[in-house]
UniProtKB/TrEMBL annotation:
Biological classification of the source: Bacteria, Bacillati, Bacillota, Bacilli, Bacillales
Annotated ranges, domain MIP18 family-like: 20-77
Source organism per UniProt: Aliibacillus thermotolerans
Protein name stated in the entry: Metal-sulfur cluster assembly factor
Domain of life: Bacteria
Cited Gene3D superfamilies: Fe-S cluster assembly (FSCA)
InterPro entries cross-referenced by the UniProt entry: Fe-S_Maturation_MIP18 (IPR052339), FSCA_dom_sf (IPR034904), MIP18-like (IPR002744)
Length: 111
């Protein structure tokens, strides 16, 4: 079980990503699209993010990974986190069911 402090840090990391990292093709943040599968922070405050993309051949993978690292820069600069590692995975495959209600409304997809 996560400590309350670690859980709050993970929630802040997720909020920073949600507020800053927009999928350039869809215009919705990667959190609400359901692309972030897991965020973990180890005891040395290193962050590991498991995520996917909407398609395997996405030419913007490098851009999105860099956008995530940039979004977390302030947390790094203030010593709240250290290294950020973003792992792109393809299993489980992403589908529209992972999207939040907000993302579905924004994209005109029936719930």
């Amino acid at each position: 079980m996560l400590s309350e402090e670690k859980q709050e840090l993970i929630e802040r990391i997720e909020a920073e990503i949600e507020n800053s990292v927009i999928d350039p093709e869809l215009g919705v943040d990667v959190v609400n699209l359901g692309l972030i599968y897991n965020i973990d922070v180890d005891d040395e405050k290193n962050v590991h993010i498991r995520m996917t993309l909407t398609s395997m051949g996405c030419p913007l993978a490098g851009t999105i990974v860099q956008d995530i690292k940039t979004a977390l820069k302030d947390l790094r600069d203030f010593g709240e986190i250290n290294d950020v590692d973003v792992e792109i995975v393809w299993n489980p495959p992403w589908d529209k069911s992972r999207m939040s209600r907000y993302a579905k409304i924004a994209l005109g997809i029936p719930d």
